[in-house]
Amino acid sequence: MSCIIYPSPIFGPVHSRRLGLSLGINLLPSDGKVCSFDCIYCECGFNEDHRPQQPLPTRQEVAEALEQRLRQMAAEGRMPDVLTFAGNGEPTCHPHFAEVIDDTIRLRDRYCPEARVSVLSNATMIHRPEVHDALMRVDNNIQKLDTVSADYIRRVDHPQGNYDVQLVIERLKDFHGHVIIQTMFMQGHCCGESVDNTGDAFVQPWLDAVCAIQPQQVMVYTIDRETPTSTLLKATHEQLDAIADKVRARGISCSVSY
Asked: Which residues are CB-contacts of 90 (< 8 A; sequence separation ≥ 6)?
């Protein structure tokens, strides 16, 4: 099993399936993983296998590294389409996440005003007012909702603390449409149990929740890289297209990444 541990605090740019030329911002240590989930499909591996020894990057370190990289990209004549908070775990766990967002917006406006600021999050910290308000200031507030089944979340996403999916859905509603829902669909099994969430029993309740949230967009995707659990399988093109069509039939924009 291989995994990807990203440099910190800046990595890339990389070509994202969903976002274009993306300059990554990693608010977690560069030698391990820190996440409030422990998903069986995470490209960074399992939390316990990659415990970091280094500290989180400071707000100042992030701002200085980002400005240096943007200056370099400007000199090279290529600027990013998006500045993306991602990397080795959950970015909103950083104690100065809100302040880092403000620094990033300021630097974006100075060096690449047409670029979008995106955050890839698992929605476990959106109950914090400062996190909610910071996410309202970014262009692409991308929040995970793999299912509305508490049992499936327990088996697949492995929350590292209390996680009530119904409360999370209510908090996603509080963005009043300024949110993009991203959902991983897959097949296969783990520990002898199916993890296939492509059927109607999973899709229909999830679709009802999406309609209640009324996001600006839904991102439907499947496994792209090697996973720490070897028995997982990609959802098919036909399955993803069928799910996306159901979202669009409800009047909500939906993109698909195969």
From this structure: 28, 34, 35, 36, 37, 121, 122, 124, 125
